[in-house]
Specification:
UBC, single chain, nucleotide-binding, 14 helices, two-stranded antiparallel sheet, Ubiquitin Conjugating Enzyme, ubl conjugation pathway
């Protein structure tokens, strides 16, 4: 009897060696798929046929005919014993081999290979196919069927196992980029990419320090007149605007900043800081301007970013700027626009000096006649109280929605002036006049030391402040309680926003914490 024995098992995650019956000098048969590394074991596998089950055609094996039944039984018993021995050896090899090292770790026993002549004779015979399914107790050992495998190749699982092998290797970047499963998405959430608060505050300070008073930008997408074309213009129009640009670049006051557009020469944006001694102090007020095609024969068109608040008789909630120089109010002589002498610089300075003044109530036409009586002064002080509240709301408006190209100025300005603004809020809530000079902490400490030094002198201890109730009482006015209530709300909102920008608010935060402790207790 000619026996053809195939190996039964392979190590886990290895490729089984081809059987002798399907092996040639050219290598394994291309029709048989090579299992992928890391193939999971199956509970039930199709095993190779037992040699004793081969039904051989007697006509093709004449030397097998005429044998006695006893000799056939003994031969079958010997073959079965040899088969069991081979299977036992294969299982021992599989148990001793490593899982997932090299393909073909289980080698065949050459002593059981059939000779080439025998293989030729065996191939000419007809073989009956019969399937055997058993529970595989040794899940690490399995083989594939002659007819093919029921295993479906999983490319994603294969790539994952390859990636696992390269996890501990330090490959050059070029190699990693060429292998899909080695590419890792770059993340910005590492600890080295976070900036500390001190670094953010320093960056804000540097940008504010180098913020230019006049500069050109590429576009003004949020400009109020961005969607309004200027129309056809000529060389004279261009020359005159360039002349205005030159004046703005050289002669702007320190408290006014301007940006113009290179692509839209008709657009301009300016911001001015509210003057000290007025209810507008330390505030930022933004204006958008457009030079019409008839410029300089006609004045520029100016829009005020009000945020829906009217904090001046000349600055409407709709954004209109009422000024005789702009032709939006009647005027006489030099108050009107002059095409030969008037400039954009003149417009900006006029708004800052004539509109944002100490007592804007009297800007209203006809109200200037009440400036010299008590009733007019009382109303002007009340108007200033309301104006300062609107100015604080405008600060919040700018902090939360800074106009384009002025983000660094807004952040840096309120980082630098936040402490002074909060101190003014506290000072006004104590009953002092809006716009009056707020004493520095050093001055308050000196006054306190002087009062303690005099000791028993009661007159020095109860010394009234110059800007307190005396001035308001002289005008016959008592500030309503709503002012303090509204200012307390604005103070808390400003304190939060200034903290974000890095302003020095330690004193006010400590006071707030001190007040909250008894309430919590």
């Amino acid at each position: 009897m000619f026996l053809c024995v195939r190996p039964l098992c392979t190590a886990t995650r290895t490729t089984p060696s081809p059987s002798p019956a399907h092996t040639s000098s050219a290598g394994p048969s291309p029709t048989r798929p090579l299992p992928a590394p890391g193939r999971p074991p199956l509970a039930a596998r199709r095993l190779p046929r037992h040699p004793l089950d081969f039904a051989m055609d007697a006509s093709e094996y004449p030397h097998m005919q005429g044998g006695a039944s006893s000799s056939s039984s003994s031969c079958r018993a010997a073959d079965a014993a040899a088969w069991d021995a081979v299977q036992q050896q294969k299982r021992q090899r599989c148990q001793g081999s490593s899982s997932g090292d090299k393909v073909g770790s289980c080698t065949e026993n050459n002593s059981f290979k059939a000779s080439e002549a025998e293989l030729q004779n065996f191939d000419s015979g007809e073989i009956e196919e019969e399937d055997y399914y058993i529970d595989d107790e040794d899940e690490g050992c399995y083989d594939d069927d002659n007819e093919g495998s029921d295993y479906e190749f999983d490319e994603s699982d294969f790539n994952q196992q390859l990636a696992d092998k390269f996890d501990d290797l330090d490959l050059p970047p070029g190699v990693e980029a060429s292998v899909p499963w080695l590419q890792k998405a770059a993340t910005d959430d590492g600890p080295g990419n976070f900036k500390s608060m001190s670094e953010i505050e320093d960056e804000i300070g540097k940008k504010y320090k180098f913020f230019k008073q006049f500069d050109t930008v590429e576009d003004f997408s949020d400009h109020h007149y961005a969607n309004k074309p200027v129309g056809k213009t000529g060389k004279e129009w261009t020359k005159r605007i360039q002349h205005d640009w030159k004046l703005l670049e050289n002669d702007l006051p320190a408290s006014i900043y301007v940006r113009v557009s290179e692509n839209r020469m008709d657009l301009l944006r300016a911001v001015m800081i509210g003057p000290q001694g007025t209810p507008y102090h330390d505030g930022l007020f933004f204006f958008d301007a457009q030079f019409p095609a008839s410029y300089p024969a006609s004045p520029p068109i100016v829009y005020y970013h009000s945020g829906g608040l009217r904090l001046n008789p000349n600055l409407y909630a709709c954004g209109k700027v009422c000024l005789s120089l702009l032709g939006t109010w009647e005027g006489h002589g030099c108050e009107k626009w002059n095409s030969a002498h008037s400039t954009m610089l003149q417009v900006l300075i006029s708004i800052q000096a004539l509109v944002l003044n100490e007592k804007p109530y009297f800007n209203e036409p006809g109200y200037e006649t009440y400036a010299n009586n008590a009733s007019g002064q009382r109303t002007a002080l009340e108007y200033n109280d309301t104006t300062f509240q609107y100015s604080c709301r405008t600060m919040l408006y700018s902090l939360r929605r800074a106009p384009q190209h002025f983000e660094d100025l807004v952040a840096g300005h309120f980082r630098e002036r936040g402490r002074a603004i909060l101190a003014a809020c506290k000072y006004y809530m104590e009953g002092n006049k809006v716009g009056s000079m707020v004493p520095d902490e050093d001055d308050e400490d000196k006054e306190l030391e002087s009062a303690n030094a005099e000791g028993s002198s009661s007159s020095s201890a109860v010394k009234p402040k110059n800007n307190q109730v005396d001035l308001r009482a002289g005008a016959g006015v008592v500030r309503p309680a709503s002012f303090k209530t509204n200012m307390e709300v604005l103070f808390e909102e400003l304190l939060m926003e200034f903290n974000v920008k890095g302003a020095d608010t330690k004193k006010f935060c400590a006071e707030k914490l001190k007040k909250s402790q008894p309430a919590a207790a």
